[in-house]
Write a structure and sequence with these properties.
- The chain is built from three helices and four strands.
- The chain is an alpha+beta fold.
- It has a single domain, classed as Glutaredoxin (3-Layer(aba) Sandwich).
- The longest helix has 15 residues.
- The N and C termini lie far apart (44 Å).
Length: 114
């Protein structure tokens, strides 16, 4: 297998349900990860490496997916979004409706105070 052109990191972090920040896994992160792996296999996309990871810090808009070296971050990703994301991973344009940026990293629950 050749070295991948792109790496896609999918947050599957899981917090205690009582924590004020949501958990990407509880919001479907593992389902997104599995769907991306399945779609990658169907397309024989050997230039892409899908990696499960811990917290990517934009928890309030999870599940979060990060694509490198493109420096593209997606939030609120669902299994239904996977084909469009795979199109991006195979050299297409990023999925603008899913893109998140600096404002999403600043979101915090009101009771956290930071």
């Amino acid at each position: 297998m050749p070295m991948p052109d792109r790496f896609v990191f999918v947050c599957i972090n899981e917090r205690d349900p009582s924590h004020p920040r949501p958990s990407c896994n509880a919001n479907g992160g593992a389902d997104v990860f599995n769907a991306l792996r399945e779609e990658q296999g169907r397309r024989l996309a050997t230039g892409v490496k899908v990696v499960a990871c811990g917290c990517l810090e934009a928890c309030m808009v999870g599940p979060v997916v990060a694509v490198y070296p493109d420096d593209v971050h997606y939030g609120g990703v669902t299994e239904a979004d996977v084909p469009a994301i795979m199109d991006h991973l195979e050299g297409g344009e990023p999925v603008d409706v899913l893109r998140i940026g600096p404002p999403e990293w600043e979101l915090r629950p009101p009771d956290m105070g930071y």
